[in-house]
Predict the 3D structure of the following.
Amino acid sequence: MKKIYLDNAATTKVDKKVIGAMLPFFDKKYGNASSLHSFGRESRGALEKAREIIKKKLSAYGYQIIFTSGGTEANNFAIKGIAFANKHKGNHIITTQIEHECILNSCRWLETQGFSVTYLPVDREGFVKKEELAKAIRKDTILVSIIHGNNEIGTIQNLRDLGRICKEKKVYFHTDACQSFTKVPIDLLKDNVDLITINSHKINGPKGVGALVIRDGIEIEPLLHGGGQEKGLRSSTENIPGSVGFGKAVEISSYKDSIKIEKIRNYLIRKVIEIKNVKLNGPMKNRLCNNVNVSFKNIEGESVVLYLDKKGIAVSTGSACSSKSLEPSHVLIAIGLKPEEAHGGIRISISKETTKKEIDYTIKILKKAVGFLRGLSPFV
């Protein structure tokens, strides 16, 4: 049976070059980066090299790069760290209704700690309106957090415009760029971003490593307290193999790959929307190059996922972190879909290795799935 992996928004295959870069740091160069001896200095050098690679990719000069265990930790660090370090300035935070669950749940928890949160609505394609953001900022607002490339529907926000509003209002601006990093050019200074979350396993790097990039001079409270690693902002023995792998994944990434992926994505969209009663969720323009999210009328998305899985094709119903939930996608509801429409949604996410041949086979099986499942539906 063919095996076709089309769930790259959940995680990606680790590139062989990344594996090769990591291997020596498991059994040959295994020193603790905080140690003074040569083993430790060797690991420290590798860690700092990875940091510099990431800094160059983001034009993050004048920023600190703090390695974390992944995007979830980095987002928690950003939201909670800014909130508690700046509560003397205010207790109001602004985010959106289409954030990743780790942002939304961090904000909900902060509401139990006396903070106030505004959840901005989005339009039918998932875009935040500049006017809505400007209107929501108050005298006690300390942070705005808006996802860059949405993990479910692929909407890419205009960081520069949103960040400019925050800069003018003197409010910190954070963005979750886990899905967009290396796919969309980001220049932190020009984009007016104060903090940005990135991670490794969405870009052909290892799982379990990410980073929060913080503009110099920003007050932020650490989540983890201990030995004072990562400039005292993230105590824990550094994950050298993971950080080296992250750095290598960034180093070999290319925006040329994004152009190639986008062509395959556009072909996939054209073929999918030929199916009767199917709707593309999210925009056609300003969309992540690897993302396709569609809803099928009168079909449960989970049924489509399971049908395709039996044929060796991996797709998902939405965010991998909440795909086991029976609740409809909060992102699809936020862009105006009815619950029954949201339940009919699936996400197909491709990679630089996805071929047209694989897409053609997927479309063939998808059409069979839709025909079979609609034949069972009492609503057709």
